[in-house]
Automatic annotation (TrEMBL):
Alphabetized Gene3D superfamilies for the sequence: CHAD domain
Domain CHAD positions: 1-274
Name the record gives this protein: CHAD domain-containing protein
InterPro entries registered for this protein in UniProt: CHAD_dom, CHAD_dom_sf
PANTHER family: CHAD DOMAIN-CONTAINING PROTEIN, SLR1444 PROTEIN
Pfam family name, one: CHAD
Domain of life: Bacteria
Length: 287
């Protein structure tokens, strides 16, 4: 049995334990930060599922294992999106009475979303992850370290190639958001590679990737704000025409600003993909 292979399982087990702790904390105190941490914990596990499906594609069916986390992830995301718009309220330049109406609109949505999230938190149990945990433990013992190292690099190659492909298409908010998802997976798997083979140069690249991911995250928060503003304008038929026009103008201003940022993000993503070259494989088909 390979001695180093269980490091893959140890990394996964640590992430699983972390998620269970985050869910317990959110169940007791569903603060904005605890809900955010649950989302981050699930994203990390989903990235690892993607990696393990690449390592052992026939034995590990990723979609089946993601099922245990799907509802909790969705419910936490709905609350999180509303929290983002609430945090932006002080910066919204509209009459006081309109801001109050918009706040009530968001609060009503948040109350509904929180009730659904609370149910999902209560229903989630760590036992639901046991079948996946047992399988990953078995697979990590059967896979030699050299194979894991090659697959980690193949994964980085795959994510970098996906980011590059998104850049070549017509720029859009949706594609930038997709690139951010690839970045998250890349950072998670790069962190595992760092544990197996420490590398200062890779650590620097991963730090830059995390910073870029955070920048795109803040940018996406404004996209979420636009969607909530649009829903509010469509729902509140009592808004004076002048106020509605002012809100729509503000929407357009935000949208234009977000569009301008896309070019900057594409430049940064291109630089990052280039920096990853030393840790990519020449031909994924050969591994």
């Amino acid at each position: 049995m390979p001695e180093e292979a269980p490091a893959l399982y140890d990394f996964y087990a640590h992430r699983t334990h972390s998620l269970v702790e985050r869910v317990d904390a959110a169940r007791r105190h569903p603060t904005d930060e605890h809900i955010r941490r649950v989302r981050v914990g699930i994203k990390r596990l989903r990235s690892l599922y993607k990696l393990i499906a690449m390592i052992r594609p026939r034995a590990f069916k990723r979609r089946r294992h993601k099922q245990a986390l799907r509802k909790l992830f969705k419910r936490a995301g709905q609350v999180r999106d509303i929290q983002v718009s609430q945090a932006a309220l002080p910066r919204l330049s509209v009459p006081v009475e309109v801001k109050k109406a918009y706040r009530l609109f968001l609060e009503k949505r948040e109350n509904k979303a929180r009730k659904k999230l609370q149910k999902a938190l209560v229903r989630f149990h760590k036992k639901a992850l046991k079948p996946t945990t047992r399988l990953i433990r078995r697979l990590s013992k059967k896979t030699n370290p050299a194979t894991i190292d090659r697959r980690l690099r193949a994964f980085i190659d795959q994510e970098a190639a996906a980011i590059y492909a998104l850049q070549q298409a017509e720029p859009s908010p949706e594609r930038v958001h997709e690139a951010r998802k690839q970045l998250k997976s890349l950072v998670e798997v790069g962190t595992l590679l760092m544990q197996l083979t420490p590398d200062d140069a890779l650590a620097t690249v991963l730090t830059n990737a995390k910073q870029l991911q955070a920048q795109i995250g803040h940018w996406h928060d404004s996209i979420v704000l636009l969607h909530h503003l649009e829903a509010f304008i469509a729902q509140d038929h009592h808004l004076p025409i002048s106020t509605a026009e002012r809100l729509i103008a503000r929407q357009q201003q935000l949208a234009n600003h977000q569009e301008q940022r896309i070019g900057q993000f594409n430049d940064s993503l291109h630089t990052l993909v280039e920096a990853l070259s030393p840790w990519r494989v020449a031909d994924v088909r050969t591994i």
